[in-house]
Fold these 4 entries.
Entry 1:
Amino acid sequence: MFGHNFKCALKTLFKNKVLLFWTFAFPIILGTLFHMAFQDIESNETLDVIDIAIVENESWKENKILSHVFDELEGDLFSITYGSEEEAIALLNDHKISGYLILSDTLKVVVKENGIDQTVLKFVVEEITETEEIMKQIAFRNPMKEESFYQNLYSMIGQIQNENKVELVDISNQNLSYTMIEFYTLIAMTCLYGGMLGLYVVNQNLANQSHNGKRIAVSPTPKWKVILSSALAGYVVQLVGIALLFLYTTFVLHVDYGNDILKVIFLTLMGCFAGLSMGIMIATLFKVSENTKTGIIIAFTMLCCFLSGMMGITMKYLIDKNIPILNLINPASMITDGFYALYYYDTFSRYYFDLMSLFLFSLLMILLSIRSLRRQKYDSI
Amino acid sequence: MTVFKAYLKVLNKNKALVILYTVLLIFFASFNMKTNSVGTFVAEKPNVLIVNQDENRGITKSLIQYITQNSTIVRVKENDSSINDALFYRDVSYIIYLPHHFRNDFLSGKNPKIEVKSTGDYNASLASMMLERYLKVATTYREVEKDEASLVKMIEETLDHQVDIEMTSKLDSNQLMKARDFYNFSNYSLLAGCVFVICFIVASFKDENIRKRTMVSSLDMKKYNQQLLFANGLFALTLWFLYVLLSFILVGKSILDFHGLLFLFNSFVFMVVALTFGLLIGNLVQNKEAIGGIVNVVALGSSFLCGAFVPMEWLPDFVLKIAHIFPSYYYISNNHFISSLEYFELSWSFVMNIGMLLLFGVLFILITNIISKRK
C-alpha cells in the first residue's frame, strides 16, 4: 500500500503544472533575473578612474610641480582633460567630468554635486598641496638654509614617504561577494515553496479537503502509511526541483556555495525537509480551503525570505543586529545563514547551529501535524 | 451598473494583494531616507571600524581622532563574528586593527604593521587613502620631530589644511534621486498590481458559465464592455493616484515643482500602458491559477531588466539592450531624465519615450481586439 500510494502521489505531483511552475521554473527564472541585474553591481562599486578637467591657464603652466604630479596620476586615478575654463564648465554641466581644478592664487576644486568621486578628488588635491605645508613646517625647524635646501627637502620627503612606510596588511576574507546572499535566499525560498507540494499531497488524503480524501478515510489503510508515503513523494519531487536549481545556479550562473559540497547538500536536504514539514503542518492545522492554505504558505515564505534578505540584502543583517530572535526562528534565515556560513567562514560552528535550528523547526512542525491528525474521525461529512 | 458592482465585489476579494504591494512600495521607498545639504560641498564619509589594541593616547589617539572626523565610525559588538558580518553586509567598509604597542613602536622609529579588512569598494578605497595620508605625514614628521606632543601638533596642523571647493549645482539631487527610485520601483507595483487585479477580474467575468449567462441576458454587450473598461480604468487610476500621493508624502516638498509634474505625467502614461497590458493578458489567459505566475514573471522580469530595482547605470549593456522590448525601459529612462533636470526642458528623448509608451499601449489594445474578436 505504501508503495502504491507513493507512486500515485508522485504521478499526481508531476502532472500538476502550476505546482511545478512555482517549485521548478519560478526559482530558475528569478535566479536568472538576479544574475542579469546584479552581475555588475559589485564591480561598479570599486573606485574607477575619475574623469576630471584642469583649466590650463598661465598659473598652471608656470607651476611645474603640480603639472608634474597630475601627469603622474593620469591614467591610474584620474583621466584628465585640459582646456579653458569655459570648456571645463561645459564638461561639468554635461556630467562628463566629476569636477575640475583651477589654479589662481590657490588651487580650487569645482564640482557639480556631492559624491564619492568628488570627495576623492578633494582628498587627492589636499594631499598634493599639503606637501608644500610639510616643507614649510620642516623648514621652520631648520633655520640654517643653504641654497639647495628646498630641492633637497623635496626629494627627502619623497624618500621618507616611499621607504619608511607603515605597512597596511589586508587580512580580509576573499569571499566577500554579498550578492551571493540573493541566491542563498533563492534556495531558501525554493525549499519553503516545497511546502506547497507537501500541502497538495496531504490535502489529497484529508477527508475534509477532497473526494479522494473521503475515499481514503473509509479505506482500511492506516493513516500514517498514506500520509508518510504522500509526504515522501512530495519530498522526492522537491529534491528533483532543488537539484535542478543547484545545477543551474552553479554551472550557468556561477554561484559560489563554498568548497564543502557535502555540507551544502546536507543543508539543502534539511532545508527541503523544513519546507515540506511546514507545508504539512499548514495542511493539517488550518481548517480552510486549499487556496487559502497555499496563500498562507506563499505569504509566510515571502515574509521569511524578505527578513532573510531577498528584497534587500542588508535586511538580514539589520535583523541579525537588532532583533536577532526573529531570524533565529525564521527557517529561510536559517537556510540562508547556513550557506553564508559555508561561504564566508572557515569554522563550522555557525553552520551546525543553523542545521540544528532547522531540524528543531521541522520537528516542531511534524509534532504539530501529528497532534492535529491523530484520531481525526468523521461520523459524517 | 451591475457589471461595475460585480467588479467591485471581485476587487474586494483581492484587496490583500493590493495592500501587500503598496506596503512593499512604502517600505522600499522609505529605505534610503538620508538627507543631505544643498549648495555646500559635503565630503562622503566611509563607514569605518577601528579596533584599537593599543592605549588610546598620543599618536594613537590622534590617528583615531583623524579617522573619526573624516568617516562614520560604526559600532558593532566586539567579537570576530559580528565584525566579519558587518564587513560582509557593508555596514562597515573598512576595519583598522591598531596593534599593541603601536604608539611605542611608531615613535621609536619602527614601522609597525597595521592589519586592515576592506570590502574593496570605493568607500573602502577612500578610507584606505585617509589612513595612508595620516601615516605618510606622520612618518615624514617623525624624522624631524622627536617630541610626541609637538609631533602630533604638527601632523594635525598639516592635515587640517583644506582645499577650496566650490559646488555649482543648487539642485537637491538627493531628494530627486529618492523620487526617482520611488517612481522606478512603482514600475513593479503598478505593473504587478494592475495586471494581476485586472487579469483576475477579467478572468472571473470570462468564466464559461458566467459568460454564457451574461450573453443570454438582456444586457447590451457594448455597454457591458464599456462598464468593464470603465471599472478597470478607474481601478488603475486609483492605484496610480495612491502611489502619486505616497510619493509626495515620502519625498515631500522637493518635487513640488516641475519635477513632480513630470514624474506624475510619466507615471500616468505608464499606468495607461499597464492597464492595456492587463486587459491583454486578461483576455489571453483563462486559467486563474496561471495568472500569478505570469504576472510575477512579467512584472519581476521587466523590473529587474529595465532598472526598477537596480539603477540603470549599473546594469550590463546586453541587459539594457534586451530591456528595449519592455515598456518599463522607456518609463524608467524618463524617470532618470527627470531627476537630472535642473530647469524645465522637454528634450527630444523624453518625448520619444512617451511616444514609445503610447505606442505600446496602442499595440496592446490592437492585439486585445484581434484576440477577443476571434473568440
Entry 2:
Amino acid sequence: MRKDKNTAGRDKNTTINPFVRGAVTILGNEKHQSISIPLFAILLSLLAGAIVILFLGKNPIDSFISLLQGSGILPKAQYAAKKNMLTDFLSMINSLTPMIFAALAVAVALKTGLFNIGISGQMLVAGFAATVTVGYSNLPMAAALPLVLVVGIVFGGAVGALIGWLKHRFNINEVVSSIMLNYIFQYIISFFINSYYMNPVTRQSRQVSAAARLTLTDVELYGLKMDIPLGFILTIPVAFLVLFLLNKTRLGYELKIVGLNRKAAKYAGIKVGKSMVISMAISGALAGLAGVTLYLGTFASIQPRVLTSVGFDSIAVCLLGNAHPIGILFSSLLITIISKGGNYMSSMVGIPQEIAQVITGLILLFSACGAYIRYRVELAKENIGNGKLRIENNGEGGQK
Amino acid sequence: MDEYIVEMRHITKRFPGVVANDDVSVSIKKGEIFALLGENGAGKSTLMSMLFGMYEPDEGEIFIRGKKVKITSPAQATQLNIGMVHQHFKLVENYTITENIVLGQEPPSRFMGFLPSVDIKGSNKKIAELSKRYGLEVDPRKKIEDISVSTRQRVEILKMLYREAEILIFDEPTAVLTPQEIEFLLDIIRELRNSGKTIILITHKLEEIKKVADRCAILNRGKLVGVLDVASTTTKTMANMMVGREVSFKIEKNPANFGPEVLNVAGLTVKNQDGLQVVKNVSFSVRRGEIFAIAGVSGNGQIEVADAITGLIPASGGTISLNGNDITNSGVRERTVAGISYIPEDRQEVGLVLDFSLAENLAMKKYFREPFCEKGILNNEAFEEHGKRLIEEYDIRSGQGISTTVRSMSGGNQQKAIVAREIELSSELMIFVQPTRGLDIGAIENIHRQILAQRDAGRAILLISLELDEIIGLADTIGVMYNGEMLNIAPAETLTANQVGEYMMGVKAE
C-alpha cells in the first residue's frame, strides 16, 4: 500500500527534479536527520575523495576497497606469516580505542557549552603519570592494569578540572587556558622524559612493562600473532555511561542547561561554575582514558615534544557523531578505518598515503557542514512542500 | 481596484501541529492605519511575516498595488517598498545608528581615492535629515548598545524609511515601551500616515487601536473574525470578538486578609556591574495575603530588587529575610526551596531554556526533588505527567504537547508555561515581574485571576510592573521606585493613578 502511494506521488511530481526530491524525502525526515545528515556528509566526502583519486589516474573503487582491506574489514589477497584479517582488524581496533574516549571527552564538555581543545594535553599528562607510576613498576598485571586506568582517569580529570576552575574562578576562556596548558604540559613532560626516562636508541621514553600495557601484544592464538586491545572492552560501556549521564541523570540535566542557557541555569538554582568544573573534570577523565589507552596501549612509550593528533581529530569526530555518544562510536570507527587503511591503500593502489589523510580531512570538513546541509534541506522541503500540498490535496480528493 | 495597496486573498499557512492562518483575506487601503488584532498565537505575526517574505503561504495569493506577487524573501519585500519593525529588534549592538540603518545598502565611496569603503559621513548627514523630516530624533553616531529601547525602535523605523518603504508593518511596537514612549510612538505613526505611508499595526492592545487605527481586522485562532471600522466600534466589542467570549475589564478583588510578614527587605543596596548604585537603601515588607506592587518607569531599579531577593545578583548592603530567616547570602536554590517563586522579566533569556522541551522546562525548578529525581537518576515519567497536568490546568498551547521545543511556542504560551511552573511551586513568596508583558487580553485576565487566587490562598506577592493599570487594579500596597529609591509606600486605596504616575516621574521627591 505504501508503495502505491509513493509511485502515485512520483508520477504527479514530474515537474520537480526527482534527484532533489529523493534527497529531500530521505534527508527531510526530522526524526532520522541526526543519522541521515552525517551519512550524507560522508557520502559527499567519499565522492570528493573519489574525484581526487580519479585525478591521480587511479580507480576509486579499488582504493576504497583497499582501505577496508587495510583495516581488516575485507580480506586481503595475501598475508604475511601469522597474520590474517583478524590481526589487521584488531590492530585497527587498537587505534580506535583512544579515539572513542577522546571524542566522548569532547562531547561531554560540548554539552555544557565548553570547548575542550586540550584533550591532547590531558591525554599526555594521564599517559605520562601512568607510565612513571605504574608502567615502570614491577606490579603484576592484575594490579597494574586497573591502576593504569585509575591513574589515567585521576590525572586527566585533574587537568580538566583545573581548566574548568580557571574559567569559573578567573573567567579565563577554556580554549585559551587549555591550549596554553597543552604547551606547558608538553614541555614539562618532555623535560622529564629527556632527563630521566629516555631510551637513547628510540629517542622515546623507555617502554612500559608488558604487565602494565592495556594492549596484549604478539599473543599467539590459532597460529596467529595478534595484538589484543583490552581497553576497547571499556569503550562501549563508557559510551553508554556517558549517554546515561547526559540524558538520565540530574547531573546531565544540569550540565545541559548550563550549556544551553547559563542565565536560565543560574535562575533555576544551578551552580554554573561548579557545573563547568564538574563537566571539565569528566571530560578530562575521559581524555585520561584516551591517554592511557594510547600511551600504554596502542604504543608503550611517549615521544617527547609531540602532542598526539588524536586529541584534535577527536573534536571533528565528535561533531561528525553529532556529539552523541553512540554516534561517536560509529564516527570514530569510520575515521580510524580510513586512517588505518591508508597505509595499505598507498602500497596496493599506489596512492600516496597523504591522499588517505586528504580523504579523512574531507570527511571531517563535510561533517562540519551538517548544519548547512540541514538548512538546504529545509529550504528545498519548503519549496517542494508548496507544490506537494496542492497535489496531495487533489489526490486525496480524487480517492475519496 | 487600485484603492487597495495590499490584498491578501485566502491565505492559509500551516506549521507542524497548527494551522496558523486559515483562509484569511484582508485588503488594506493606501494611506490608512490598519490594525491586526488578536490573542497570542492568533496568527497575526505569521500573516504579516508572509507579507514580508519570511514565510511563504501554503495557499492563497498576495497582491501589491493590484499586481499579483510572490514574496520569497525580505529583500524582495523591501523592493516592493514593504518594511517591518519586528517585536525583537534586529540591530547590531556595537554598530552606530547610521551603520545599522545603511547595513545592506551602504553608499559606496573611496577611501584615500581608491580603497572601497562606506560613505559614513554622507550617511550620517542623510540619516540626520531623515530623522528630522519624520520627527524621529536620533544621534546617528551613537552606538546601539548605548541607546534606550525606544530609540532603538526609532532606528528600526528609520531603517524602513531609508529603504523607502511605503507599507510599514509594526509588530507589537508598544510591548517594550513605557506609557509616555507609547504616546510618542503613536504620534509618530500618525505622522507617518499623514505623509502618505500605509501602516499595518499588529497589536493586542485595544486602546492603541482605538487611538490611532482607521480599520481593524480581528483574528482568532488563525481565522479572520471580522474587519471593523474603528471609529464606530467600542473597545468592548473588539475585545469580545478577539477572545471569542465576553471579557470583563474590571478586576474583581476580594477584600484583603493580611497575615504575618513573609518578606522583609531592610536597607537593600545593589550595585550594577559598573559599581553604580542602582538600588539605594530600599526597605519594605510583604505580608501573607498581600499584593505589594512596585511601580516605576523602566530602569529605576525595580528589576534589581527582584533579582537581589531571588539571589540572581548579590546585595551590596542591607538584609533580606524570608519568614524571619536571613537569606541575604543564600544561594538561588536555597531561596527557591525556602519558598520563593520568581517570574523574571526576561522570559527567553532567563526564564526558559528555549531548546529544551516543554516538559523539561516545566520541571526546571523541581527536577532535583522526588519524584523527578531519585538518587541522582531522573524519572522521565514524572516529567511527562507533571508536564501534561500543567498543560491541561494552565491551558498552555503548543504544537506537539509536552515534547514541543519551547523555542517554537508563541510568546504568550511561553509566559503561561513560566507562570504555571512558578505557581506550581506553591511558594510562600511569589515575585511577578511584568507578568502580562506582551500578552493579550484573554491571557492577561487569566494571569490576573491567578495572581489574585494566590493572594487569596495566603501567599505573599511582590508584583513589579510598568503597567499602571495593572498595579492600580491588583495591588493592596503600592511602592513607587524612582532612580533606585523607594519614594513612597502606601495602601493602594489611598492613592490615585495620577498620584502614582507623579511619583513614577519623581515629581513628589522631596
Entry 3:
Amino acid sequence: MSYWTLSLTLIFVALPLLLSKTLHLGLERDTVIATARSIVQLLAVGYILKFVFDSESLLYIFLMVTLMIVAATHNAQKKGAAIKGIIWKVAVTLVFVEVLTQSVLLGFGITPPTAQYIISISGMVIGNSMVLAILFLNRFTAEVETHQDKTELILSLGGTPKQAIHNQLMHSIKASMIPTIESQKTVGLVQLPGMMSGQIIAGADPIQAVQFQLLIMFLLLTTAAVTSVMLGFLSYPTLFNQRMQLLKS
Amino acid sequence: MSIDYKPAVHFNHVSYAIDGNKILKSVTGSFPEGKITTLVGPSGAGKTTLLKLCNGLLSPALGELYVKGQLIESYEPTELRRLVGIALQSAPMVSGTVYGNLALPMELQNKKLSEDAALQLLHDVGLEEEFLHRNVSDLSGGQRQKVSIARTLVNQPAILLLDEITSSLDRTSLKEIEELIVAINRKYRTTMIWITHNLQQALDIGDFTWVMMEGEVIETGESDLLKSPATEKVRRFVKGGAV
C-alpha cells in the first residue's frame, strides 16, 4: 500500500468527525488525538520492528517484550488502585503468562525462535492478558464492595479470608474469562479474526492463516485463564490484615 | 459499671479511629457474664464499632480489650469469632436454603451439620421443620432474623452480639425475637450485648445498659437508669426516646 493510498483511508476518520460535529457529540478532539496517536505509534512501532527483525538480536527482542509488559502493567494497574501493591501483582502475572506461553511455543518447536514470531505473539498475549487483568480487576473491585456484608458474615462465623472472599473471587474470574470463551464460539461465523484476515490480505494460504489463528486462539484461552486466576489469588490476601479483618478501601 | 459480676468482655481505655476521625474515645467498662446488656444511644455514637471490636472484626487503636479474661489479641481470629457470635440487622444470608445457611458455620470448619441438629436449631428459634429446605429468599424479615440467630448459635458462642436485630420488624416478630433472645440467655447462659434504638426494649429485656454518645460511654448500670438518668445529656436522650 502506497502512502497516497494510505492517506485515502483518512476518509474513515472524516466520517465520524462529521457525525460528531453534526450531532454535537463533542468527540472531534478525541477523534483527532486518537488518529494522530495511532499514526505516530504504529509507524514508530513499524520502524522499530523492522530494525529488530533485521538485527535478530536477542537483547532487542527482550527489550521489546519488556517494554510491552511495562506499558501493559501501567495501563492495567489503574483499575486496581484499591489493591495494595497491584502494580507488582499485574507485572508478575504478565511476566508469568509470557514466560509460560513462549516456553511452550518455543520448547515444543510450535513456532520458530525468531524475532518475527516471538514479538508478534508476545504482543497478542500481553495485550490480551492486559485486557483480562482490567476486566478482572474491574469486576473483583465491584464484587468485593457489593458483597462486603457477606464477606464479613463468613468472617464473623469463624471463616478464613480465603473462605470469605471465595464466591466473589470465583465470580470475578469467571466473568473476566467469559468474553474470551464466547468470542471463540462465534469465530469464523460472526467475525474473521484480525490476524487471520491480515495474513490472507497479505497473500498467505487461507488454511495456513487458519492454523495460525487457531494457535493464537488457544493461546489466548490459556492467557485468559492464567491471568485472571493468578491475579485473583495474588490480590485477595491484600484485602485483609493479619487479624483476618476486611480492610476498607 | 459498679456491679460485682464476672466480666465476659472488658474494655480498658479502648479507642478507635478511622482516618483520624475518633469513633470511640477511651471506653472503659465491662459486660457481665450471662447477662443481657443493651447498648443505647443516638446514631453515630460508636455502638456498632464497639460490637465489631468484641468479635475482632475491628481492632482497638489504643487500650486493652479482654474477652473471658484473656487479651483479645491472644485469640486466633477464627477461634474468637466462634466464641463471640454476631447477628446483624440486615441478617445477611448466603443464597440457597435455610439448611445451607445453618450448615455454613460447620462447613467453614470442614464439618457437616446433621439434619437433626439443624431441626433442633429451628426448634430453638421457633421455626417449623418445614422451613429447613425453604429458599432464604422466600423468608419474611422476622424469619430471616430467626435463621440468622440460629446460624450464629451453631458455633455455640459464649457471647452473642446483636446489632439492632429488631429495628425493621413488625410488632409480632419483634416480640417473638425478644422472647427468643431471653430464652437463649436463660437456656445457655449466653452473654448478650444488644444494640437497640428501642428504649422500652432495653428496659424490658436488658439486665444492664450502656448509654453511648459521640464515641463515649455516658452512663452504665442496671437498665432502670433509663428511668432516672444521672446526667442531663442522657435525660435529654431518653426524653427523645419517650421512655
Entry 4:
Amino acid sequence: MIDKETAKKVLNQLLGSGGQFSELFIQKKVSNSLRLDDNKIENASSGFEIGCGLRLIYEDSTYYAYIDSIEESKLLESAKVLRAAINNSNINKSIDLNDSYSNYNVKILKYPDLVIPEVKKQILLKVNEAARNKSDNIFQVTASLSDTQEEILIANSEGVFVKDFYVKIFLAINVIAAKGSEVRTGYKSLAKSMGFELFDEKKPEDVALEAADIALNMLDAINAPIGILPVVIGPGFGGVIFHEACGHGLEADAIIKNASVFKDKLGCKIASDIVTAIDDSTLPYHWGSYKFDGEGSPSQRNILIENGILRNYMLDIKSSKKLKLPLTGNGRRQSFRDIPIPRMSNTFIDKGTEKPDIIISSIKKGIYAKEFSGGQVDPATGDFVFGISEGYLIENGILGNPIKGATLIGNGPEILNKIEAIGNDLDYSPGFCGKNGQSITNEVGQPTIKISAITVGGTGA
Amino acid sequence: MDYFSKKKNNNNDIELARKISRLIDKSKVDEYEIYISSSTDNELEIFEGEVESLSYSDSKGIGIRVFKEKRIGYSYVTSFEENKIIDCIEKAVLNSKITNAEEINGLPLRSEYRYTKEADIQKYIFDEDFFKVNIEKKIELAKNLEKIVKGKDKRISGVDSLNYSDNYSEVTILNSNGFEDSYKNTSCFLFLNIISKDKKDTSTGFSFLYERNPQKLNLEKIAQDAAAKSLMLLGAKKIKSTHSDILLDSLVASQFLGIIASILTADSVQKGKSLFKGKIGEKIFSQNINIFDNGIMKEGFSSKPFDAEGVNKGNTQIFKDGILKTYLYDCYTARKDKTLSTGNAVRASYKSNPGVGISNFYLEPSSDYSFNDILKKIDNGFYVVDIIGLHSGANPITGDISVGAKGLWIKNGNLVFPVKEVTIATDILSFCKKIETIGNDLKFFPSAGFIGSPSLHVKDIAISGI
C-alpha cells in the first residue's frame, strides 16, 4: 500500500488541470474458490489482484482510469494523463489527509489464508454427504465455497484517508431432487463478512439440509395459479421484494436521472403506516456490511421509510452534492476497476408485531411465498417481477400444496401501500446485486409480510 | 484526451507466455496451459448533453491451469513480477492437490485436434478502422444520439441510460503440448434506454447496437428502435388472465432460446441437469426447426479462431428438422462421451477455468413468413415486446419459465392496445412443442454468447393478469 504523502502527490497531480475532486482507490485482493459438483471437487482456484482506480470530477463529469499497479511512478503518470481530460485554469488546492473514523468494528478469528485447502474441501464434502443422505430422491449436489481477503486504501482531495481490511466467506449450495419425471431444485447460501469461524456459528451441513428440503418439498408441487391473490411472503430472502420494488428506486442516481418513481417524494407517505424500511451497513459481520463505503464514507444505519413516510435516499458523494443531501455511506464499487455509484447494503423491512402463523391464518385463498430465485425492476416505472422458488397455496388459513413455476409481478409504489401485516420474525439473507455491470455483496431482509393483492403468474387455474 | 483514445500496442503476450512456461517447467507438473488476456476498454455515459462519466482501462491477466497426477489446479494473477507469477504457479499446484483425479483430465491432444488456428476468422473479428476513431469523436457520437432520440417525439421525457463502450482485446494461449497462438478482437457497443411520459403513464424502451468499429454504428436505427418501443407501450393496461397465442419479438425469442442453450452443453447433460438428457434422436420441436452453434460465423460476435482450450471452433447443428442431434462439448466432456470437442470451451475471463458454453447460437429463420405475415395469422393473441425477470423466472433445470412481459394485444391480425404487468408462463419442453410459425427476421442478442432468433409464434401460453 502507499503512504499519505504519496497519496497527496497523486491527488494533487490529478487536480493539476483544474478538476474539483480527485480520488484514489487501491485494492489488493486475495481470493480462493472451491467447487464441488457431481460428487467431485472439480475446481480449485486462487487469485491475486492489485490495482488502483483514479477518479477525477469536474462539474458533472467523472473521468476514471485504473491501472494494475500501485507503484508511485505509475500512479503519478496515470494521474497526469487522466487530468488531460479537462482543461481548466489551474487552481491549486491544498490537501490535508486525515484518518477517517467509523463505528463499525469486527474481529476476524480464522483468516482464510491460514485455513488449509483440505479443511475447505472437507466443508464441501460434508455438504454433499448431508444433502445426499437426506433422501434417495436427491440426485445432484453442487456447492461452492469462496473466500476473499481484501486490503483497501482510499484517499480524496477533500481530506478523506481510509485504510481498511475485509474478510468474506460465501457458501452456496444447489440441490436437485427427482421423482418420476418431476425435477426440482433447492438453493441456500451462507455468507458473512467474517473468517472461517462462520462455520462454528452455523454448520455447513445444516445449510445443505435446508437446500435439500426445498427441492424435496417442491417434488409434489402443482402448477401455480394465475391471477390476483393475497400473498404472504416469508422472512429472510423474501426481502428481495423490497430490494427490487423499492430499494433501487431510492438509490440517488435514479432520482437525479429522473428515472425513479420516488423522485420529489421525501416526506411523503409512500407506504402503509406499518412499513418501516432500513438500509444498515453497520450490522456486525453481515454480508452487506462495511466499515467504510467505496468512497471512504463511514457506514451508517439509514431509515429509508418510517411508518410509511419516505425519509431518505441512498447517496454517494456525487449525488449528495447534486441533491444537497447528507452522505449516507452508500457509494459502493465492485473493485478498483469501477466507478462508485449509490448502492444498497443490508436493506430490510423492519420487524412488526404479528405472529407469522396468525398472518397466514388470516387468508382464505392465497399464496405463501417462502423462497425466491431473485427479481428485477424497472426503476423508472416501478414495475418489478420476482420468481418464487418455494411456494405453497394457502387454503382457509392453512398451508396447502406446494406450487411450481410462479412469478409475482407488480408495481413498487402500489405494493408498498398493500402491505397489510408485518410479522415479528425479522431475518436476513445474503446475495449479490448487479447494476451498471457491477456486482456487489448485498443482504436483503424482512419479517413475514402480507400483501393484500398481487398478480401471481403461473400456468394453473 | 489522448489517454482515452486507444492505440494498438505491440503486445508481446506470446513472449510473456513463454517466460511463464519456463517458470512452470521447473514445478514438475504433468501438463499445463497459460491463458493471457489483454484488454483496453472505454466506457462513456452521456446525460443531458454532458459527459456523465468517461473511463478508460488497460488491463491484463494471466490464468494458469496445471494438471498433476490427473488432478487440475487453477490460479490467476494480474501482476507480472516474477515472484508474483511464481506464487501463482505454486497456488495452482497446491490447488491441484485437493481436486479429484480423473483419467480423462488433460489438455487437448495433438493427435485429436488441429493445433493451428482458423486463420480466416481473425479478419472478421478485428477491424483496423476501430483505432481511427478518437475519444472526442466517440463523445460527439454519443451526444448526437441523445439529441436524435430526444427529437423523435415530444413524449420522450428523458434518457435513462445512454452508454457507449468499446473493447480491444487480445487472447493468447500456450500449452505444454505445443499449442501457442493468439487472436485479437475489436468491438463497440451502444445501449440506450429512454423514458416516455404522457399525462397518465410512464414507459421505458431500450435498444442496443454492436459493431466491430464505431464508424459503423447506425444512430438513427438505435434511436428509432428505442423510441418506437417506449412509445408503443405508453398507456399500457393490465389484462384479464387467459391462455392465448403469443408472438415473441425476435429479441425476446432469443432470450428464451438462451435458456434452451444453457442445457444443451454436455456438462449439464452429464451431470443430470438437463431436460435433454437421453433425448438424442428425439423430435423435441413440433416444427422442422434447425438450430446451430456456429463459432466461425463471419458476422458473429462470439466468433473466434480457437476456443478457450485452443481447439478450433466449428459449426455444429444441434437440432435438425426439430430433432436433437448432439450436445456441445469441450475436451473433458467429449472424452466422457467418447467423442471430440465441438470447440465450445469458454471462459468468462482469465479468472476462470474453461467450461462448456455456446458461441453464436441461433435458430434458423424461415423464408416463408415476415413479421407481418405472422401477425396476420393471429386472431387473438399477445405480441411480447419485452420481458423482465428472466434470470429469476426461468429455471433451466426444472424447465419452468414464468416471466414478466409487456407488449401489444393482437386482434384479427392487428396490434390494438398496449399491455403491461402480466406474466407469461410455460415450461421448456411444452414451449418447444408449441412453436407454430417461424419468422424470417433473425436478430441476435449479445448475452453470455451471441444468441439469435427470428420472431416466433407460439400457441396456447398462460398469461396472468388481473
